[in-house]
From TrEMBL:
It comes from Psychromonas ingrahamii (strain DSM 17664 / CCUG 51855 / 37). The gene is anmK. Signal peptide: none annotated. Pfam families: AnmK. This is Anhydro-N-acetylmuramic acid kinase. InterPro entries: Anhydro_N_Ac-Mur_kinase, ATPase_NBD. The keyword Kinase applies. It comes from the Bacteria.
Length: 374
């Protein structure tokens, strides 16, 4: 029997998501049993660079020179985390087939008259500074075919986690939350449900100066404010049918401030608002899962899996579902997205189209990503 030439190959995935908490990087290996995590790291972003990117995302305005310089610096940061991880794991660049680099989304606008999505982190530089082929720009071909360009991970979830004859849900709770419904007949549905941690992070940073609510401790001190929750839930995005995707362009501090101003929020404690934002994420996620899937196991990944109150509320709001995290499927919940981009790089080099049209609404499945060779 001929041996399969792709078995044993190593790929690297780099993801830095909407939370801007750091750069997730993972080395994965194609084995006979699937795609296996070999090493991973999630170093924090340099604070100055993080602030510059946040400013670009929040102000939605940037000088072209600044944009170019931030793009350069972010790519250098990505190359650095790759080189560091290779050194720590005693692997050489020559052993890696490719890097899949998501880049940092600075604007995602899939629905306007001129849809676009923009990620920074020049893949030429990543290839040059690591000596490894870099695959990047994964979203825009899907958009070119009329798709949302997001979420992309449902295809990876299907490839790794689908089990014939069994319904499963994969729930990523990053800044934005997205669900993948894996149906027993191999059909897949996936979309962004709305805020995961992004509003909680923004509020916590504003009132406590901490970039996130560690272990949900601040939210635990508060009570849900029913009038505020009702108002937040009236956001039209939540009742829109998929395909749909969103980002910090919509769910941000201004979005929250506008709604707080409509209520007499001066009477509410900051902890109550934090608790209500957590409830907003839990309610919007659990409603969408229950709308599209019969009772089944829900496997959570992303930083939200580390928030015990959020996990507790998801289980309570979905009593017929079994909520755990992707560790139960042998993938570290903190690195599912990074490994997904390693997988997307592999798929690109193999020239496999990615089955996403049912998720993103694209007219056809496409080859995703551009290849930058050093
Ligand atoms: N110990 C913890 N307790 C509570 N929340 C946590 C904890 N650790 C991480 N988080 C939350 O997870 C977030 C980071 O999650 P993650 O890295 O999955 O997001 P992301 O990849 O940036 O976002 P996205 O998936 O939307 O692109 C943090 O901003 C924080 O809100
Ligand atoms: C435009 C963009 O960067 N979207 C991210 C974001 O973070 C979570 C959610 O919103 C998801 O739609 C997507 O990331 C993952 C990796 C995806 O494409 O599947």
């Amino acid at each position: 029997m001929l041996s399969d030439p792709i078995i044993g190959n190593y790929y690297i995935g780099i993801m830095s998501g909407t939370s801007l908490d750091g750069i997730d990087v993972a080395i994965a290996q194609r084995t006979r049993h699937g795609f296996v995590q070999i090493a991973a790291a999630a170093p924090a972003l340099d604070n100055k660079l993080r602030q510059q990117i946040l400013t670009i995302c929040q102000d939605k305005k940037v000088e072209l020179q600044t944009l170019g310089e931030v793009d350069f610096q972010f790519a250098c940061a990505c190359a650095h985390v790759v080189n560091q991880l290779l050194e720590d794991s005693r692997l050489s660049a020559a052993q890696i087939e490719a890097i899949g680099s998501h880049g940092q989304t600075i604007f995602h606008s899939p629905n306007g008259a001129f849809p676009f999505t923009q990620q920074i982190g020049d893949a030429n530089l990543i290839a040059a500074k690591t000596g490894i082929t870099c695959v990047a720009d994964f979203r825009r071909m899907d958009m070119a075919y009329g798709g949302q360009g997001a979420p992309l991970v449902p295809a990876f979830h299907q490839a790794l986690f689908a089990k014939s004859g069994e319904n499963r849900v994969i729930l990523n709770i990053g800044g934005i939350a997205n669900i993948t419904i894996l149906e027993s007949d191999n059909k897949v549905l996936g979309y962004d449900t709305g805020p995961g941690n992004t509003l909680m992070d923004a509020w916590c940073e504003k009132v406590n100066g901490e970039c996130y609510d560690k272990n949900g401790e601040f939210a635990f001190q508060g009570e849900v404010l029913p009038a505020l929750l009702k108002l937040l839930l009236s956001e039209p995005y939540f009742s829109q049918s998929p395909p749909k995707s969103t980002g910090r362009e919509k769910f941000n501090l201004q979005w929250l401030a506008k709604r707080l101003a409509q209520l007499d929020s001066g009477l509410n404690s900051n902890a109550d608002i934090q608790r209500t934002l957590l409830e907003l994420s839990a309610v919007t996620i659990s409603e969408q899962i229950q709308l599209h899937s019969a009772a089944c196991a829900v496997f959570v990944c992303g930083g939200g899996a580390l928030n015990p109150l959020l996990m507790q509320r998801l289980q309570a709001l979905m009593p017929d579902y079994w909520v755990s995290d992707t560790a139960a499927l042998n993938i570290d919940p903190m690195f599912v997205e990074a490994i997904a981009f390693a997988w997307l790089a592999e798929q690109r080099l193999l020239e496999n189209t990615i089955p996403l049209k049912a998720v993103t609404g694209a007219r056809r499945d496409a080859l995703l990503g551009c290849v930058y060779r050093p």
